[in-house]
Write a structure and sequence with these properties.
The chain is 37% helix and 21% strand. The relative contact order is 0.07. With 663 residues, it is α+β, with helices and mostly antiparallel strands.
């Protein structure tokens, strides 16, 4: 049986290969490279740190596409001294012959002309591909101070250098002989474009490289940081692919089974008139003791964090198979309410990965898969594999059904409490929490809700606020840790219930961000251990039950000052030790001049709280963003889960970043 499975995997992989003769005739030119430097956000989203790292992802994606085509087995990503990046692969090498439509070599065409690449034509060099589909290489070049490309191909070594946003110093030239093949790209981001920073994060690159290794089994990816006196190097290669990915995510969640349910298959479709291709699907599933679900989906290695038709097909399959099995094995009786998808996904960790020759995306950030044919294919592949696993592993199937049955009973027990909360948080706001000091405006775009630690600070905030647009909800103590609690306990918790009612959008999976009553949800806690704990408890709750609040940028963290200095009857505030020292110099204060160190928000009166923390003209706030849901999932699990060691490891690793924390 195992031997047959291995043979099937190898057969599937061989079907993914692109044409071996990848040359200039495969390069299709759609339009020139214009306006990338003028409007980089159109291509990489932002010129901040995320956009800076996006350049690296595009070059890595090109190398991964060679792996998907079946011709690349090793990729090296190196951060060099001076924060340049080198990506080297052992694929076929970018074509070096002349492209007829551009009159330039394949290398020069790919790296200087937008929408030029081997991923468009009828005789494409690639069967599936990720990245920006032909704009990645040229966009990275356009946004670089300089770029060097070396190609080993057809027995020769070819080299070209670009400067000033993609201008070739000279045409591609042959500089040597070789017996290997592959492409090496080195580039330096242009500081005139990336004004915030041009310094790369090793952790960010390392995590992305590791993810690529999980999604492309058997491909070796090496990441190196050469900026340190002693270079750091890590190698990632997972023969188990997404099976190992699921095990890694589940490691600290208390898995209830050793097995990982693995599903794979493919189907040939006609995705364009007289154009056929294969859609490959694989999924891996494992259950744990937690009460939360963790389902991540990918298309051509791109994380589709808004879901799409592959996730819909997955949900159809698990609900169909689980309920049929439950009826057959008498977990459910005829006529009883069937298990919902939420019941089945409680405690589930799953990865869904498809490879598609012509993916279509929709949604706000174009990361929601829209291909309708995918739904049926994923449903069939996952359904058949899950059904086979249940019948071949009845003991594990019973463990899973026991957990699903408990989740169903807990859902029914929570239904009454949840419905009460939902009724209160509907459009008719007639029963708002008594502790809420609401604002008079009914326009969510200008309304702010301050969630404040303690009645003392809450009282000052209520007195000092702008009553037209600022609402205040004091919290009594620490809220429930939702990472460890069943849903009925969450909805029975008074403080959580007050927040749900006040915010007004309900809770996931029916949370509706269009119904929220405030477009700024501001967490305001003390700068001590308890305040930090309350902050992470609130963020965990929002992440698990109102995720769109975070993903759409409605959650903020207030930054009250730490110090107050009074000079000649006038108050000056500093938000950290560095600002305090600057303030002392500016005011020419003598050593030992008295200043106040705030231990908590409750020490400020209403006027001080308005001046420092509530006044939109003078306050400082941090916006909470979610750039990587998979990383966030791991952080929340490590910090708020049952396992102690991951929490210790996290604190040890990040302790050096903590300042001004009272213990």
């Amino acid at each position: 049986m195992e031997e047959e499975k291995v043979m099937h995997i190898q057969e599937s992989e061989s079907l993914e290969k692109g044409d071996k003769e990848y040359n200039a005739s495969d390069i299709q030119v759609l339009e020139g490279l214009e306006a990338v430097r003028k409007r980089p956000g159109m291509y990489i989203g932002t010129t901040g740190p995320n956009g800076l790292h996006h350049l690296v992802w595009e070059i890595i994606d090109n190398a991964i596409d060679e792996a998907l085509a079946g011709y690349c087995t090793e990729i090296v990503v190196q951060i060099n001294k001076g924060d340049t990046i080198t990506v080297k692969d052992n694929g076929r090498g970018v074509p070096v012959d002349i492209v007829s439509k551009s009159g330039l070599s394949g290398v020069e065409t790919v790296f200087t002309i937008l929408h030029a690449g081997g991923k468009f034509g009828e005789t494409s060099g690639y069967k599936v591909s990720g990245g920006l589909h032909g704009v990645g290489a040229s966009v990275v070049n356009a946004l670089s101070e300089w770029m060097e490309v070396t190609v080993n191909k057809n027995g020769g070594v070819y080299y070209i250098k670009f400067v000033d946003g993609g201008k070739p110093v000279e045409h591609l030239k042959k500089i040597g002989e070789t017996t290997t093949s592959g492409t090496t790209v080195t580039f330096k981001p242009d500081p005139k474009i990336f004004l915030d920073t041009v310094i790369f994060s090793y952790d960010t690159i390392r995590d992305r490289v590791r993810q690529m290794a999980y999604l492309n089994r058997g491909v070796k990816l090496i990441v190196i940081d050469d900026r340190l006196d002693t270079p750091v190097q890590e190698t990632f290669c997972y023969e188990g692919g997404i099976i190992e990915y699921v095990k890694n995510i589940n490691a600290n969640k208390g898995p209830i089974m050793e097995d990982v349910i693995y599903c794979e298959g493919y189907e040939e479709i006609e995705y364009l008139p007289e154009k056929k291709g294969k859609i490959y699907c694989e999924a891996a599933i494992q259950y744990n003791e937690s009460y939360s679900k963790t389902v991540f989906s990918f298309c051509n290695n791109i994380h589709t964090h808004e879901g799409g038709t592959h996730e819909e097909g997955f949900r159809m399959a698990i609900q169909r198979v689980v309920n049929n099995y439950a009826l057959e094995k008498k977990y459910l009786k005829e006529g009883e309410e069937k298990y919902t998808v939420d019941d089945i996904q409680e405690g589930m960790v799953a990865i869904i990965s498809i490879k598609h020759p012509n993916p279509q995306y929709e949604g706000q950030t174009k990361t929601k898969l829209g291909n309708t044919e995918v739904r049926k294919i994923v449903s069939q592949v996952v359904g058949e594999a899950l059904k086979r696993f249940f019948y071949e592993n009845p003991k594990v199937a019973n463990l899973i059904l026991d957990k699903i049955s408990m989740a169903s009973k807990a859902r029914m027990a929570a239904r009454t409490a949840q419905e009460n909360v939902r009724r209160k948080s509907g459009l008719e706001f007639t029963t708002l929490p008594g502790k809420l000091a609401d604002c008079s405006s009914k326009n969510p775009a200008e309304c702010e809700l301050y969630i404040v630690e303690g009645d003392s600070a809450g009282g000052s905030a209520k007195s000092g606020r702008d009553r037209d647009t600022q609402a205040v909800l004091p919290l009594r103590g620490k809220i429930l840790n939702v990472e460890k609690a069943r849903h009925e306990k969450v909805f029975d918790n008074a403080e959580i219930g007050n927040m749900i009612v006040a915010i007004g959008g309900g809770v996931d999976p029916e949370f509706d961000v269009l119904k929220i009553r405030y477009h700024k949800i501001v967490i305001m806690t003390d700068a001590d251990v308890d305040g930090s704990h309350i902050r992470i408890l609130l963020l965990t709750f929002f992440y698990r039950y109102m995720r769109d609040l975070i993903t759409q940028g409605y959650v903020y963290i207030a930054q009250p000052p730490l110090y107050k200095v009074e000079v000649k009857g006038k108050a000056y505030y500093a938000y950290n030790d560095e600002q305090l020292e600057v303030l002392k110099k500016q005011l020419e204060l003598k050593p030992g001049y008295p200043f106040q160190r705030y231990k908590g928000l409750g020490e400020m009166n209403d006027v001080q709280l308005w001046d420092t923390t509530l006044n939109p003209k003078t306050r400082k706030m941090l916006r909470v963003t979610l750039s990587d849901a998979i990383e966030a999932e791991q952080v929340f699990t490590d910090l708020m889960g049952d396992e102690v060691q991951p929490r210790k490891d996290f604190i040890y690793k990040n302790a050096k970043f903590v300042k001004n924390l009272d213990i």
